[in-house]
Amino acid sequence: MAAAPFLLLSIRGEDDAADDEYRAVMRFGGLDEHTLRRIGLTHRELGDIDLSQWSGIILGGGPYTVSDDPAAKSPTQRRVEAELADLLDAVIAADFPFLGCCYGIGTLGAAVGAVIDRSHSEPVGPVTVDLTDEGRADPLFAPLPDTFDAFGGHKEAASVLPAHVTRLATSAACPVQAFRVGANVYATQFHPELDVDGLCTRIDAYKNHGYFAPETAQSLKDAARQRTVIHPMTILRGFVDRYARR
């Protein structure tokens, strides 16, 4: 019997960035088009998700910011966030395998009562991440070095976690780089699917979205190529290996 597929949820309206994200999750997760399906939430409604039909759910990053004033959000963003809130309620209740990447910190954090604000934004590019003691003991994060480089870039972050949530990683500028809810529900602030080529694709796609001054795009790419980012992808492969089920 074939393994139940994983589901990638995308909030990227830019096809080049969305396609690159899908290919990266397949590559680093050891998946293919049969074992990783995707729904582009900016193009269609989520619909009913029967968790029993999936091995796990991965939520990609994108330009949405959960903590923005609802009045400033587009109708599409408000719809997507309402759909994700309902899905996450079910995911958390079932302790169902979930990995939210970057935007996942905001969506999952909001669902569990974390404080999500702009106090700890980080510029686009490499960031040095440190595991907490809990991270070193976590089955997905334990294979990583205690300190490793990753790629990120975000306007909002979790500044305070509720007591029942386990913080797994931190960085100098951002206190919550990863956390876990229950045993199987995860979110990372950095991008576990992102290598330097992927970051350069994102820089081109989002240079006019307020993450950085557009004229600095090339210098950001040059700076990213000075760092070796190889460890975050271990999380994706570990997630797939741990939760793939037949």
UniProtKB/TrEMBL annotation:
Residues 51-194 form the Glutamine amidotransferase domain. GO terms for cellular component: cytosol. Its EC number is 6.3.5.2. Keywords: Ligase. The keyword Nucleus does not apply. This is GMP synthase [glutamine-hydrolyzing]. It holds the Pfam family GATase. InterPro entries: ChyE-like, Class_I_gatase-like, GATASE. The gene is guaA_1. GO terms for molecular function: GMP synthase (glutamine-hydrolyzing) activity. It comes from Mycolicibacterium chlorophenolicum.
